[in-house]
């Protein structure tokens, strides 16, 4: 890890500043604290004062203004919504230390758009993460902007690997990554919800149905990971000829559930592209 350079403007000498401490921002911050980062090496901001107070109390992290946070930070992590990125870049660009690494977790917003809102040559890394990082089982994909080096990618990998797995990918994969692993937890929770309701419909008490479904989801994920088998093989092992599973799967195929998943993920990919286009149109030069 490089050291923070001396800078007389610096009110907080942080290693990492995180701007936008909502759901995903807290996911990153809490993971770093769990991984043993000293809270005094972290500084964060949120434009909602009550949210800032909540995180300060929960993690002992200094919550400050965007400009204070950015000045002197060697890594600046942006976790605001894509629609709020333009304003945030314009606000922080004059205060960024030369060479500070800017990391964006926003869906859609590409590194070209980020770079256009920052001083020339500022290194940028774009990330797509997900909420299972809250239990250290996250999946993140990262891509370098034009001025980011291997050292910058390694720094981001270090930050994110505190809470799960990290893949380095070409940037043009990131809209698809967003559709699959970024939004993915929501699809799986949706399936869990549907199965719990089905259990209730079949006469199971809600708590029993919930326990059955959640453990089945967890066990199936663990079996997939630990066996290394293809999901088709694992599904076939459950599907006895003429049995109950085959009857259920036939209904899922008849209701075009597989095609619905494909359409859903195309819609997510297209929305990521639309967010990128909107962010590009909003872009301002510092
Ligand atoms: N929630 C998720 O599962 C995932 C979210 N993301 C991305 O993370 C970003 C944040 O999403 P969420 O955390 O879900 O949204 P959120 O709405 O929970 O958090 C955004 C936070 O940013 C704060 N904020 C907005 N403008 C600000 C500014 N100028 N300065 C300081 N704070 C500001 C808001 O007060 C809010 O607390 C989005 O760009 C989203 O695409 C990416 C992957 C997964
Ligand atoms: O729904 C969204 O736009 C964000 C990006 C991926 C997950 N949540």
TrEMBL record:
Any matching Pfam family: F420_oxidored
Pyrroline-5-carboxylate reductase catalytic N-terminal domain boundaries: 15-108
Subcellular location: Cytoplasm
Limits of the Pyrroline-5-carboxylate reductase dimerisation domain: 171-274
Bilayer-crossing regions: none
Family statement: Belongs to the pyrroline-5-carboxylate reductase family.
HAMAP family: P5C_reductase
Name used for this protein in its record: Pyrroline-5-carboxylate reductase
Name of the coding gene: proC
């Amino acid at each position: 890890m490089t050291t923070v350079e001396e800078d007389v403007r610096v009110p907080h000498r942080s290693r990492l500043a995180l701007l936008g401490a909502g759901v995903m921002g807290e996911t990153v911050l809490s993971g770093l604290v769990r991984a043993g980062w000293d809270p005094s090496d972290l500084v964060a901001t949120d434009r909602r004062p009550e949210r800032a107070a909540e995180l300060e109390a929960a993690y002992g992290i200094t919550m400050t203004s965007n400009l204070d946070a950015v000045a002197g930070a060697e890594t600046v992590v942006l976790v605001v919504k894509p629609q709020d990125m333009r304003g945030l870049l314009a606000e922080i660009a004059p205060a960024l230390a030369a060479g500070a690494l800017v990391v964006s977790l926003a869906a859609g917003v590409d590194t070209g758009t980020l770079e256009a809102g920052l001083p020339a040559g500022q290194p940028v890394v774009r990330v797509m993460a997900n909420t299972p990082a809250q239990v250290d089982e996250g999946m993140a994909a990262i891509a370098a902007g034009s001025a980011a080096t291997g050292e910058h990618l390694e720094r981001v990998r270090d930050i994110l690997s505190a809470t799960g797995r990290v893949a380095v990918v070409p940037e043009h994969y990131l809209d698809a990554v967003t559709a699959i692993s970024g939004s993915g937890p929501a699809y799986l929770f949706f399936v869990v919800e549907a199965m719990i309701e089905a259990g209730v419909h079949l006469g199971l008490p809600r708590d029993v149905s919930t326990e059955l479904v959640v453990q089945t989801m967890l066990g199936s994920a663990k079996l997939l990971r630990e066996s290394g088998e293809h999901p088709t093989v694992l599904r076939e092992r459950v599907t006895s000829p003429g049995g109950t599973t085959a009857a259920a799967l036939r209904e899922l195929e008849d209701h075009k559930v597989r095609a619905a998943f494909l359409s859903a993920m195309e819609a997510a990919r297209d929305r990521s592209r639309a967010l990128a286009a909107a962010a590009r149109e909003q872009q301002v030069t510092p």
